[in-house]
Amino acid sequence: MFKNPSFLFDIVCTVVWLLLAVRYARKGFLAASVQLGGNVFSLVGARVFSGWAAAEVFQRFLAGSFRTQIAESISAGGVVDLTGIADKYAGFLPESFRASIVETCERSISAVLSDNAVVLADAIVQKVLAPLLTPVISVVLFFVAFALLRMLVSMLVTVLGLVNRLPVIGTVNRWLGWVTGCVASTMDIYLMLCVVWAVIVITGGNLTVLNDTVMSSSLYYKVFNLFNPFL
Q1: Which of 25, 130, 190, 202 could form an S-S bond across to 181 if both were Cys, CB 3.0 to 4.6 Å?
Q2: Model's pTM, two decimal places?
C-alpha cells in the first residue's frame, strides 16, 4: 500500500491540506475569508483570461510563422504530411491527442488540397496546430495570471491579519478562522492538482510515477477530474 504512488500522493495532499488549514486559521476569519474569496476570484479570473488570451497569443505571435514555414515546406516538397507537421510543432503532446486532431483535420481539409500552398498552410495551422497548441498556451497563461492575482490578494490578507490583535473581536475572528481555513486550504489543494494535471499533459504521461494510469487510483485526483477547469 505504501509503495503505491497514488496512495502516497493522497497522504501528501492530506498533510498539506491540514498544514494550510492551520495556517489560514491563524490569520483569522476576516483574513481567511478574503483569502478564500480571493482564491476563487483568482481561479475563475485566470481561467477566463487564459481561455481568451491563448487564442490571441497563438494568432498574433505564432500562426504567421507556422503558416510561412509550412507553406515553404509544401512548395518545396509538394506533399502534405499532417502527422509529421503535428509531430514537429507539438511533439511534446500525447500521441493519441495529436492523432485525434490530425484525423479530424484530414477529413475536413480535403476541400482545400487543390488550393495554393499559402491557403493550404493556413488551413493546416488553424485546423491542426491551433487545436494542439492553444490548450497548452492556455494552461501556461492560467498559472501566470493566477499567480499575479493571488499576489494581490495576499497583500490585502496581510493587512487584515492585524484584526487578530483586537480584544474580543480578535478572539472571535481567530475561532471562526478555522472554518474558513479548512475551505481555503481545499482551494489550494485544488490548484495543486491543476499543476499535477498540467505536468501529466505536457509530459505526455511519460513520467513513471506521474501519469494518468498511476493517478487514476488517487482519491484526490478522481475528485479533481470531476471539476477539472480545463476540460
Answers
A1: 25
A2: 0.73
